[in-house]
Specification:
This protein has 2 domains: about 100 residues; about 70 residues, no CATH class. α3 packs antiparallel against α4. It has 5 helices and 4 strands; from the N terminus they run βαβαααβαβ. The chain is α+β, with helices and mostly antiparallel strands and about 180 residues long. Helices cover about 45% and strands about 15% of the residues.
Length: about 180
Amino acid sequence: MIAHRSHIYGVIGEFEKPEQLVHAAAKIREAGYRYYESYTPFPVEGLPEAMGMRRNMVPLITLIGGLVGGLGGFGFQYWANVISYPLNIAGRPLNSWPAFIPVTFELTILCASLSAVLGMLALNGLPQPHHPIFNAHRFTHASTDRFFVCIQARDKKFHLAETARFLQGLAAHHVSEVHDD
């Protein structure tokens, strides 16, 4: 009995060696699938390239956060010392920027690090306490000695039976449905 598409998250294929997974990921991409993920117990060289992964946005988000923090810290000190509450102390200039450097530096680091962490969490879709892939019975081996690829049902090219046959044709050791329940 085939479950309804709305309750299917995707089809998962299990591979024994990382080279098989890299080859399968490249073939899946060549076949036109766009929504698929690979799961490995350790980083696999060549897998991101085979999947066609783009560079991530975390470095740019971190840079923007750091710039906002640094400029904001400097701007606030300038506003407080020059515009809002100017004090002429010993004839020094109101905009004594060397005194502003410690706060500017600290706010740059603080905002950059917070932006990096929050940006990484947002881009990864976290926090996500439960993922449908955990419903796959054999997925418990993903953290020890097996390599998995899951083609998601939201892919335009996804058809349950054809996608399962496609993964079997890529020499997947075991192919099964992943339910969204």
